[in-house]
Design a protein that fits this description.
By secondary structure, the chain is of the alpha/beta class. Helix 4 packs across helix 5. The C terminus is likely disordered. The protein is globular and about 65 Å long. It has two domains: 200 residues, Rossmann fold (3-Layer(aba) Sandwich), CATH 3.40.50; 173 residues, Rossmann fold. The strands form two sheets. Strands 3-4-2-5-6-1-7 form a seven-stranded parallel β-sheet, sandwiched between helices. A seven-stranded parallel β-sheet has the order 10-11-9-12-13-8-14. It is built from 16 helices and 14 strands. The protein binds adenosine-5'-diphosphate and magnesium ion (MG). Magnesium ion binds next to helix 4.
């Protein structure tokens, strides 16, 4: 049942995409393809395997979704599977496929954990072309005989770095093994940690590589600041930062689930509207938090790193790291929630004495020097953090074991 669309001549048709798809993205307000789209779309159309990497917020979803929809053409069997590390990402990708395929008769559905099986079973049985899934729930459905991957022509592993971090490798391998050997396989990732290479050599055949930008780079539209503070004053400083900042919507990242609940409680008592997103919350609560934040019902979203990667939330003006991420790469992902699609954003990070090393490793990883800021009028408790010399000593101590190790290796 093809639907009539006008004849198109745009940057998207020049990449080989059909009028229907070019019309669809135009309706969504896309004018030019992003660099990853410009390079990946022709490769995916050609049928070749691909490893595509580009920082978060650069449009990787459309880079695979558009050419896949084109290749599938019209409604038939389940021919495309997209694996996502979290439920939120799976939902987001499914939604993107729904929008892009609006002018086709392709059917898209999603399966993920934490909710009942009934609706998913019904959708799977109804006949679908494209399935977005998290690995655990998909395996459950496969074991119950609810879904067959025997006709999958195109397999996408999205956010592969995150998938590996979350320990999904065994599940992913079991799923991949159930798809035909003749399939086209696409990897998309923000970063390319070394573990990806071995999975790639196992799952991909002679892949093309499209790598956009420096892996460690952060959007240039974001302003960064470190706020040194002693641990006992963190919440007070956060409170003052929120008061003094003219923010539209802010995500606050905490290291632990309990920590994020605590921060949310305290902020609520101070009169803020707050949503919480972490893996101890039920699926319904998570959706409510996310939707509430997106719609403006909550001005603040407190989250653990589960929310750090890939979530596309428009108009986040500020990201505040209440806790410094332990892993420098996570910093890049967390602040990737702001400054998306050329909007400006601010990223504030509270840094205690214990975090000095992690803060420096963020600077090393991103190749930036981040300004240390103090808030005028805040009753700071004295800390060596404010003492340049003491900081230099901490840095020297942190650097030492590394240099010793290097010498050891050379000998
Ligand atoms: P990534 O997966 O690389 O983190 P997404 O695919 O989630 O990024 O896209 C980020 C945002 O950019 C989304 O809101 C998407 O609609 C938007 N976007 C993607 N491609 C374009 C484009 N060509 N023009 C304008 N906006 C785009
Ligand atoms: Mg993505």
């Amino acid at each position: 049942m093809p639907i009539d669309v006008p004849k198109m001549d745009t940057a998207f048709t020049k990449l080989g995409l059909s009028d229907a798809l070019a019309f669809g993205v135009q309706e969504m307000g896309y004018v030019e393809p992003t660099p990853i789209q410009a390079q990946a779309i022709p490769v995916v159309l050609s049928g070749r395997d691909l490893i595509g990497s580009a920082q978060t917020g650069t449009g990787k979803t459309a880079a695979f979704a558009l050419p896949i929809i084109q290749k599938l053409g019209t409604h038939g069997k389940l021919r495309c599977l997209i694996l996502e590390p979290t439920r939120e990402l799976a939902l987001q990708v499914e939604e993107a496929f729904q929008k892009f395929s609006k002018f086709t008769d392709l059917r898209v559905t999603i399966v993920y954990g934490g909710v009942g099986y009934g609706k998913q079973l019904e959708d799977l049985r109804g006949g679908i072309d494209i399935l977005a899934a998290t690995p655990g729930r998909l395996l459950d459905h496969m074991e119950q005989g609810n879904v067959s991957l025997a006709n999958v022509d195109i397999l996408v592993l999205d956010e592969v770095d995150r998938m590996l971090d979350m320990g999904f490798l065994p599940d992913v391998k079991r799923i991949v093994q159930k798809t035909p050997n003749t399939r086209q396989t696409l990897f998309f990732t923000a970063t390319v940690p070394p573990e990806i290479a071995s999975l790639a050599s196992w799952a991909l055949k002679d892949p093309a590589r499209v790598e956009i930008g420096r892996q460690r780079s952060v959007a240039e539209t974001i302003a960064h600041a470190f706020y040194p503070v002693v641990a006992s004053q963190k919440f007070d400083l956060l409170q003052l930062l929120l008061e003094q900042t003219d923010f539209k919507s802010v995500i606050i990242f905490a290291r632990t689930r309990m920590g994020s609940d605590r921060i949310a409680d305290r902020l609520q008592r101070k009169g803020h509207t707050v949503g919480v997103l972490h893996s101890d919350r039920s699926q319904r609560e998570r959706i409510e938090a996310l939707e509430g934040f997106k719609s403006g019902k909550f001005e603040v979203l407190v989250a653990t790193d589960i929310a750090a990667r890939g979530l596309d939330i428009a108009g986040v003006s500020h990201v505040i790291n209440y806790d410094v991420p332990e892993n420098a790469e996570d910093y890049v992902h967390r602040i990737g929630r702001t400054g998306r699609a050329q909007n400006t954003g601010d990223a504030f990070t509270l840094v205690t004495e214990e975090d000095v090393r992690d803060a420096r490793s963020i600077e090393r990883f991103t190749g930036m020097t981040i300004e240390r800021k103090k808030i005028e009028g805040f009753p700071y408790i004295y800390s060596a953090l404010f003492d340049e010399k003491a900081q230099a000593e901490v840095a020297a101590a942190a650097a030492k074991p590394v240099s010793r190790l290097h010498r050891g290796v050379r000998r």
